[in-house]
Amino acid sequence: MAGEAQHGKDAGHAAAEHGEGLVFHPFDQFIVKPMFHDGPVGLFTFTNAAFWMLLAVAVIFCVMVLGSSKRAVIPGRAQSIGELLYGFLHKMISDVAGKEALPFLPYIMTLFLFIVTANLLGLLPLSYTSTSHFAVTVTLALAVFITITVVGFVKHGTKFLGLFWVSSAPLPLRPVLAAVEVISYFIRPVSHSIRLGGNILAGHAVIKVFAAFASITLISPVAILGITALYGLEVLVAVVQAYVFTILTCVYLKDAMHPSH
Fold this sequence. Notes:
The chain is mainly alpha-helical.
């Protein structure tokens, strides 16, 4: 993706030099770049993506750990935020996956906090949205997929395979449905990651397009209004996509806890 974006950027500069009109690069904002030098990105290069992910972790640590270190009967702002998030996710897991899944609350809460914080940080000026990259979202989705699969086999053994056998269906249809269930199970990390990364990437790209038109005198008022509306929408999307990723994790966890159809 970074190479394609760079190629498009070079082509755009060439077009601008030949006077072909307005040129903008909505995908430049997703290029992974070294933080402290110019040049190629290596295996151990500290990049803008790594910086903003670390910043998301630091923000979570400050709010959830440092902010609530002085616990009180009458909570402060940080403690109130932590308690609200804890209660919200506790209820979500209980309602969707059952009380047997509550030991996974720390893991699911970590996922939610990281995704929502990274999404919101990506809306700051000159920031970088790490959750727009599929390398990040696929890693998160694969972590959930592997965890759910391991939990299913550890808890139920081979009975976990009952997830793929629809015993309530007529016998001739069961092998066909089993094949469909297997395919849908292994496609989960793909849909799980693309849903998050695609929505974040698309929203930021559209904002960049509107921002390019803001430099044109006749169009700028409409473009600025469009950017304002889209920015408000992206704040909502940032929270909703973190919620969707988390609740789907709870749904998959329910399958691991209760695999039989």
